[in-house]
Amino acid sequence: VLALNGKIREAGKKMLASNGKQVDFGSALQSCKEAGGTLATPTNEEENKAILGIVKQYNRYAYLGIKEGETLGQFKYINGMPLNYTKWHRYEPNGKGREKCVEMYTDGSWNDKKCNLHRLTICEF
Known about the structure:
Keywords: Disulfide bond, Lectin, Secreted, Signal. By secondary structure, the protein is an alpha+beta fold. It has a single domain (10-124), classed as Roll (Mannose-Binding Protein A, Chain A). Helices cover 19% and strands 32% of the residues. Strands 1-2-8-3 form a four-stranded antiparallel beta sheet, with helices on both faces. A four-stranded antiparallel beta sheet has the order 5-4-6-7, with helices on one face. The longest helix has 14 residues, at 45-58. The chain starts with 7 loop residues before the first strand and ends with a strand.
């Protein structure tokens, strides 16, 4: 029997999965694309909690499928759509153009971060 130990989670119509690897934003995005999905992108509390479950399981911060757009301090989903749900950590985002990617902390809140750091890859399908 194949045991995935909660490495695949369901949230609404989304399936979330992690390969446990920590890579930079571009590599995480590429891995998800090659697997036929995209980076995990919470659009509501239920999805955020499902992603958090994987973050807690690995005890690693993870990149989310959200990036800063052309306007400083304005973040969008990687498909270009405006955010309809956010869970920023207190005083975040604060990178003012220097931190274009978004990571999830182990408490489920978000922080803007540089894109070249190694974070957990979590994909959605």
